[in-house]
User: Which sequence fits this backbone?
């Protein structure tokens, strides 16, 4: 199981997730960075894109098949909206959570 966290940056009014990046724009603070994850495109249930910290932890849970959602790294091939270079073909996309 994956522990869930909501990003609250005290003293900052805006928090957002920036997909396919490892850093934040100028004058923004990086809260964490990691990998963009979502359900598999063949799954019936849908999920949103989430940024999983690259220092991901696990939680004691119900076991390996608890009927929850499964998350997979998001990767993009050439011809699917991202230029190569700077993006590498069939490579997991990074993400960053920024605040201001």
Assistant:
């Amino acid at each position: 199981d994956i522990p869930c966290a909501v990003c609250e940056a005290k003293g900052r009014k805006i928090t957002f997730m920036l997909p396919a990046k490892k850093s934040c724009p100028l004058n923004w603070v990086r809260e964490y960075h990691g990998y963009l994850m979502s359900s598999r495109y063949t799954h019936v249930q849908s999920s949103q894109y989430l940024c999983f910290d690259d220092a991901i932890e696990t939680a004691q849970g119900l076991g390996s098949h608890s009927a929850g959602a499964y998350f997979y790294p998001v990767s993009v091939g050439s011809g699917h909206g991202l230029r190569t270079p700077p993006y590498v073909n069939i490579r997991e996309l990074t993400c960053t959570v920024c605040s201001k």
